[in-house]
Every structure is written in C-alpha cells, then in structure tokens.
Amino acid sequence: MDIESSGGPFGKESMIEIAAFRYDGEEIVDQLISLVHPHRKVQPYVQKMTGITDKMLLRAPRFHEIAKRLIDITQDAVIVGHNVEFDYRMIRQEFDRLGYQFERSTLDTISLAESLIPGLKSYGLDSLCEELGLTRPAKHRAEHDARATLELFEILRDKDQSKGINSFEQSILEGDYHKDKVRDLLRSVKHNRGIYYLHDRHGKLIYLGASDNIKAAINRLFIGDSERIVALKDQTHSLKVEPTGNWLIARIKKQEELNLSHPPFNRILPTNLQVGVFVDKRQSPPALSVKELAKAGKKKPVLKASNQQAANRALRMYQRGLKGRNAKDPLPFLMDMPKSALVQAKGRQSAERSVFVIEDGILIGYLFYKLNDKLRNWERVHHLMTPISNDPGYMEFLKLGILSGEFTLMSLPAKAE
After folding, report:
1. Which of 203, 206, 168, 198 is nearest to 181 (CA)?
2. Which residue among 66, 192, 271, 365 is least packed, with the fewest CB closer than 10 Å?
3. What is the DSSP letter of 294?
4. Which secondary structure element, helix H or strand E, spans residue 238, and what is its range?
C-alpha cells in the first residue's frame, strides 16, 4: 500500500491518493487505486513532488466513498508499506474522522531491507529502486510506489531464509477421510514446480518437499499405510507452495531450509552415505552405478548426489549433454568452468529469469530478476542475491544444467568502482 497526502501540520493532513494491492503470496488478487478529495488545499511542495493539483481532485471521491472498499480489501491482511507507519497513520486518521476504529497488522519494508540487504547508503524507496532495478515509472504517485514496494517485498521474502515474514499459507478444508484431505491440498496448488510445505493445525512445519510436479509428489507421498504416512496425513492441516522456476533452485532451497528447520517427517540421510554417478565410456549410453562412496574403490564419480532420484536426474542431464556434443566426452567441459560467472535459467514467470552466481569457482547464491531490468554491476547482483551454503554438489548440478542446455552463461556485469 502507498498513500499520498495533502501536506500540512501533523494530524491535519488529508489523503489525496491511495493504492492498495491485495497480494496472496503469489499474485495480486484485488486492487484499489484512487485519487481522494481532501477537503483542503494541497500544499505547493506536494503538488510539485506528486504532480497532483487541486483541480485534479475536484471530482475525486471523498474518503467516505471508498472507506468500505478499503475495509474489504484489507480484511484479514497485513498492510505492507515503505515507511508503513505514515500510511497506517493516514488511514486511521481518515477513519477516525468518520468515527470508525480501523486496526490492522503492519509490516515495514524499510526495516526488513535494513536487515536483509545490509550495507546500503540509504534505504529510501528512491535509492532501493535504483540499487535493485525496481520498476517505478513515476515517483511519488501511489500506484507506482505501491507496485515498487511489492516488488521489493518479493525480493525480501526470497532472501528471508528463516521464513519470518512469510505467512501466506493456504488453509485447506478439514475432511473426515484422508482422500478428502489430499484432494483439498491439491486443489490449493497454483504452481507445479517448486517447494511445498505441509503444516499442522498450529502452523508448525512438519514436512518440506521439492518437485517438478508437486501434485504428483503429494499423491506419491500419501500413498501407503505405514505408521509414518498415516501420522503425516493425520497431522497435515495446510499446504503452501513456493514457485522456484527451475529444479536446481528448488533443490537448493529444500536443502538449505531442511538444514535450518528439521521438519519431523522428513527423512534426513546420514552424511556419510552418498550416491556416486559413475560413467563407463565403453557403454553407450553411459551406465549409472549407485554405491556407497566408501565401497567405490579408486573409481572417481562424475559427481556426488544425495539420493537415487538426484543421481538419476544427473545421468539424464549427462546423456543429453553427451548427445548434444555428438558423443564427445563432456567431462573436460564440466571441469573447465570460469572462476566468476553468472548462469541464467528459467524464472517463476515468463517475464522473469533466475540467475546463479559463481565467484572463485564456488556457487555462492541465486537471484531472480525481471527481463526489463538490468544486472548492470556486481554490487546490484550481491544486493539481490540470496546466499547459500558452500555445497560442492550444487556446483556440479549447475555444470550439468549448462551441459544439458537448460542453463546458459551470461555476460558478466561491470565491477563496482
């Protein structure tokens, strides 16, 4: 949400424009954008800053005409704003004049940005839009400021690995039978590639998964009548899906969050047990041999994967890369990655791309950016990036993604002066 005011003494200002976008965690589902007649003159400095004149407001609706609409669009929602204290005070002040007590929870993107993107010189909306490449055609107009704030919020939510600000859970209907519960869970799935979270009735995370086909994954998860599966079905109350755009970010996010949250129904493999993907050049296509690395002898695996499913994916990607290179051995290519690189892949929407960041030969993080934005320097890359732990397996899978043609190397941005 963003509000423009008439200016004047504290407590005497009036609203002259409002923009509110109701956001369900994935998309805008409702919006209110309107000029508002302030019943007073707009201060000259406000007219110069916003471009909103007294003449423009003559036929604008009065606040009481949009008050009910504002109550409806904010019902059961958190009001997010950049310096939200001002916007919230303006709303409450207008409702007070009508004799109505308006109360909502609020979240300020300034304090969130200070915490999640440390080290910037300024955290004003102007500076953040410039620093992060946020879309903002007109400054100090409610619609454009609110849209930029939403873009900023999405970036901060991606960077918030602790999930402290992410409360967009999709509640499901409670049924008497497990099949009804699964059907309701699947009905709430909007995206089919990404991370999915199962919560109990108290909101506690009890299972975390990643898949290219979430509906099929949930169906497979709930097949069977073992004590573990029955207990999981009994305790599952809600589902949240977070799109990732591509399989590698889904894999990385899942592993990073498992390391932090340890959901009780996830089976964590022992760290000393891994899967080796071995390639026999005498066979065509190459063969996959799954063994404990301790029993692999002196034979060096192409890469290490944490489970059979990951190993199978790696083999398919290796085979596609082999085919694309006319059966030439791709191993030299896999070993010869540049020390610093940006690697581009699909984003969560058609107008978005994801980028993996490599420095000193290590995959250090990822980010999302819109196609009309530019990653003009490394400083912006670091501000947008979500850092990840140093896991050699991530880098190996990234190489295979490039080999198979799913990921592509980008030209490097300029170094910061």
Report:
1. 198
2. 271
3. G
4. strand 238-243
| Long-range own/partner contacts, residues 226-233 (CB < 8 A, 24 or more apart) | 228/265, 231/265, 232/198, 232/206, 232/207, 232/265, 233/178, 233/181, 233/182
Helix (H) or strand (E) holding 15: strand 15-23
Q: Are 19 and 143 in contact (CB under 8 A)?
A: yes
pLDDT at 114: 92
**Tens digits of per-residue pLDDT, 307-365?**
666 667 777 777 776 666 555 555 555 666 788 899 999 998 888 999 999 998 899 99
- Average pLDDT of the chain is 82
Burial of 405 (0-12, 13-18, 19+ CB in 10 A): exposed
- List the one residue out of 235, 23, 13, 324 whose CA is nearest residue 150: 23
Cα angle 252, 255, 260 (rounded to 5 degrees) comes to 125
Residue 142 is which amino acid? A
List all residues 6 or more positions away from 328 whose beta carbon is below 8 Å from its beta carbon. Answer: 322
Q: Average pLDDT, stretch 124-144?
A: 92
Q: What are residue 4's DSSP bridge partners?
A: 17
**Is there a contact between 287 and 302 (Cβ–Cβ < 8 Å)?**
no
DSSP SS3 for 249 = helix
HEC states along 181-218?
Answer: HHHHHHHCCCCCCEEEEEECCCCCEEEEEEECCHHHHH
Quote the CA–CA distance of 253 and 344 in Å, as a whole number.
17
DSSP code of residue 295: G
C-alpha distances out from residue 338 to 125, 165, 335, 384, Å: 36, 36, 9, 22
196, 335, 203, 216: which is closest to 257 by C-alpha? Answer: 196
Q: Which residues contact 106 (CB under 8 A, 6 or more apart)?
A: 78, 79, 80, 81, 84, 85, 88
Would you call 283 helix, strand, or coil by DSSP?
A: coil
CB neighbours of 56 closer than 8 A, spacing ≥ 6?
35
- Minimal CA–CA distance to 212: which of 239, 185, 182, 246? 246
Helix (H, G, I), strand (E, B) or coil at 118: coil
